[in-house]
Amino acid sequence: MTITLSALNIVAILCVAEYLEMTEDIEKGNLIVKLQVFLNSCIFHCWKDSITTLKTTKAFMPWSEDLKIVSRCIDAIASKAVVRPSKVDWSYTRNLQEKEKGTSQISANPTCDGIQNRKHDPIPIDWWVEDIADLEIDVYWRVMVAIKSTGKISHNVIGEALRVYAFRWLPGMSKEQVLTESSRGITHSYSSDYVDIATKHGHLLETIVSLLPQEKGSTSCSCLLKLLRAATILGASPSSKMELARRVGLQLEEASLNDLLIPSLSYSNETLYDVDLVQTILEHFMTQNQSPPTSPCTTQAYEKRRTRSAENLDFVESRRSTAATHSAKLKVAKIVDAYLIEIARDANLPISKFVALAEAIPDFARPVHDDLYRAIDIYLQEHPGLIKSERKRICRPLDCKKLSIEACMHAAQNERLPLRVVVQVLFFEQVRAAMAGGLGVHELPNNIKALISAPEGDSHDVAQSSSYDDGWDTLQQNVNSLKGDLAKMKMQLIEADKERRDLQQEIAKSSKSKGLRAFPSKPRKIFGKLWSSNKSSVGEKL
Question: How far is the C-alpha of 190 from the C-alpha of 178, rounded, in Å?
Fold first, then answer.
């Protein structure tokens, strides 16, 4: 009887031979010796045969472990994975990578030969990640540890290998996969099969997290957020979730809105999205550049040894780091404002969480408040039952001076906003219009000035400074008057600008032969007359 040895049956035959004690002591040249020679000369010299043999070891535990077949397969795989791409002369798989990149060549030929591929395209440095992604998680962890321990593979390639493995095995990581039971509204019976699958996926995810390189940027922010979403849905350990949140915080400027919309599946939290988790991520981002304090003695001794060139180099590097940090915070501010717009539609979102997230962004990182205003307006629209103090509280992060003209026009007519915010919008819009025409701002009524300058919690006292009914009616009248004055001022400025253009055209026609003349002072007189009449009209109203 003839038995053909291969990577599929070598482990089974070797275990049987060991069980039957077919050693050299019984007969010289016995089966065990021949099998060991076949392993060393054929199996461990072939990339794919080493992986295939490693897969078959699970069915023969603990024999395959005791005979060190598992460890020898892992060593063989690791030794080939760290080979320079230019030295790769064996076949490997690139199916999933090419599919994700949108190429169609590999669908017809998923296996690439190293020698043939080198003649056409260079072999990528991550050529090995697809083949080992077929391994089960426990064996995969041991292979990755062996590869990382060599120190010859960059952290970016390690991160890519983990990304490929996560997309291969974790549900919900790619667009083609649908994560079942991902909605709070879906009820299911916790059958043993479901619990086993969830436990298996949870263990797989936590193992991947433990293998992530420490270097920033080794794994994309999108991939980390997808892992975090899966960790939330699968009920992974809090330590794994916090580690992923910390890593996302280090590169939050690369995130997208869709990746941040992580569902909240906690029964103690009725919000649609996990806002607390995003708040934690944002805190990690804001604190990442805060360096720990150093010992004064160490600092002084170090400063004595520094040269001027080293100080100049550090200054340049510090400037670059500061510029990069500033740019990152500007990007994060836009992402957070877009996130606020999305979560503002949640009827169960508390004001405290909305305000805390909005105020976590520093002032300089939000030069324009249009998106923040839109988020606040959506929140007020979706929560019509808010009392006066709550509406004031949610508007606290809003800076009316940073609103665009379009946003000011909308806010001035927005009845959902507190009166104080509307007054501020009208005032700053009036200032903007006056400055555009080179004019000054006329005096406002005392109760409006007090409302604008009062601290956040004191506007109620301002309204109560006189008798409530009379004071409130007067305040409303002055606000309406301010709106009318602003509209009138804009129309007068438009007319004055038209007159100025007409005068310029007349001057240009009459001074062709005499050269350019100095611009007459008539427009200034027009603007002065315009403003004095406007100021007197306002005084009459007050």
Answer: 19
Asked whether the beta carbons of 397 and 355 are under 8 A apart, the reply is yes
Element (H, E) at 113: strand 111-113
Roughly how many angstroms between the first and final C-alpha of the chain, as a whole number?
A: 114
Distance CA 72, CA 68 (A): 6
Q: Dihedral of CA 115/121/122/126: which sign?
A: negative
* Measured distance CA(384)–CA(388) in Å, rounded: 11
Tens of pLDDT along 136-173? 999 999 999 999 999 999 999 999 999 999 999 988 77
Alpha helices in 137-269 (DSSP H): 137-149, 155-169, 192-211, 221-234, 238-250, 257-260
pLDDT in tens, 78-135: 999 999 888 887 788 875 444 444 433 333 345 555 555 555 568 889 899 999 999 9
Q: Which two tokens stand for residue 153?
A: 């593979």
Contact between residue 266 and residue 235 where contact means Cβ atoms under 8 Å apart? no
CA angle at 261 for the pair 229 and 340, rounded to the nearest 5°: 150
**Does residue 479 contact residue 419 with C-beta atoms inside 8 Å?**
yes
Nearest in space to 381 (alpha carbons), one of 347, 353, 350, 409: 347
The pTM of this model reads 0.73
pLDDT at residue number 21: 85
At 294-329, the pLDDT tens digits run 444 544 544 455 555 555 555 445 555 555 588 999
Cis amide linkage into residue 62, ω under 30° from 0: yes
